[in-house]
Amino acid sequence: MPVQATPDLMIFGVLAGLAAMTAVGVVAFRNAVRSALCLVLNFFSLAFLYFTLQAELLGMTQIIVYTGAIMVLFLFVIMLLNLGSLQVLDERPDLIKKGLGFLFGGALFGLTATQVVQPFLQTSQQFAPEGFGSPQAVGRTLFTSYVWPFEIASILLLIGIVGSILLAKRRI
Amino acid sequence: METGVPLAAYLGLGLFMFVVGVVGVIIRRNPIVIFMCIELMLNSVNLTFLAFAKYGPATANADPYQHAMAGQMAVIFVMAVAAAEVAVGLGIIMMIFRSRNTIDVDEVNLLRG
Fold this sequence. Notes:
The complex is a heterodimer of chains A (about 170) and B (about 110). Chain A is an all-alpha fold.
């Protein structure tokens, strides 16, 4: 399949390269704070990849929920427990674990790439209608066809709030 | 509509990020980093969902609008579950650190039979 170097492809290449490098950085850095900052960059580049897929609302949600809320929570806990310093948790190099991990990872990558991704190599036609990622379209679908899962999600979040308070408080 | 970016490019990036997350969960011992790797895996799946939503149904008689919406709804619910999961998981990590003064996942083996 011939691939022309369109501007879209170049933008995708920059964002995908950034996302891939920061994903490796999350695992490779020994310092947890650096891993967290890499993950923030990864989520940002993913948000812009969502924009390239014309899912504007979800791109904004990605920035607000992931980089705004979840990563702040992560950094807060890291700094509260002082996990940034390496004295707290000195990870001794474990060659068996590392070897097994890379072996499983390589096997998973090879298997999925050949069996799942390979049939889609020819696909580049986009069928989604214009404006499918706009807040109006997403909101209308969320509150009509998907209102039952939406309510279940709200109950799940309520249970999450209660559970985390119960866990974190010393005395109720 | 064609933009020059094939679907396989998005799928390949999602697959790469997922594999990096799996390897990280296996080889790291810091539970916070393991948690971040789980977030990485969830996000790679979100990217795959949105790519499939954009690139349309594989079958001819499916409705493209419903198809695109289904992918986005899956991403919204994954985000909601991830938010709840992070709140509870970080609470558990804090409790472990308070009661045992270590968070090394290889040291915390109370439930080992």
